[in-house]
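Sequence design from tokenized structure. All designs in this work follow the same two-part layout: the structure record, then the generated sequence. An example of the structure record is given first.
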């Protein structure tokens, strides 16, 4: 999909976001499971599908092991979306 947007977008496939990003893009009610990559070997080894993580636990794990982060990450207009989902990309880029 090729798309132009009135707001600049950042797409990250390799470099993981740092701590301040996680605090700014999530709220206490944010479901951080959508940021985690369930296909990651680390996700499976840690049994994360069976656990309910707090926001702090999820952020700490993603900062410790960046392979747990779902990619690509698209950031535009103060919003972020994780994983390959064209519908979410359309929403964030409009």
């Amino acid at each position: 999909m090729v798309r132009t947007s009135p707001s600049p977008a950042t797409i990250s496939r390799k470099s993981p976001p740092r701590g301040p990003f996680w605090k700014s893009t999530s709220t206490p009610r944010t479901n951080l499971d959508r940021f985690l990559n369930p296909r990651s070997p680390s996700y499976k080894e840690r049994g994360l599908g069976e656990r309910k993580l707090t926001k702090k636990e999820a952020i700490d794990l993603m900062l410790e092991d960046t392979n747990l982060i779902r990619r690509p990450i698209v950031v535009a207009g103060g919003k972020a979306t994780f994983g390959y989902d064209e519908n979410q990309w359309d929403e964030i880029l409009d």
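The chain has four helices and three strands. We note this feature because it recurs in several other targets discussed in the main text.
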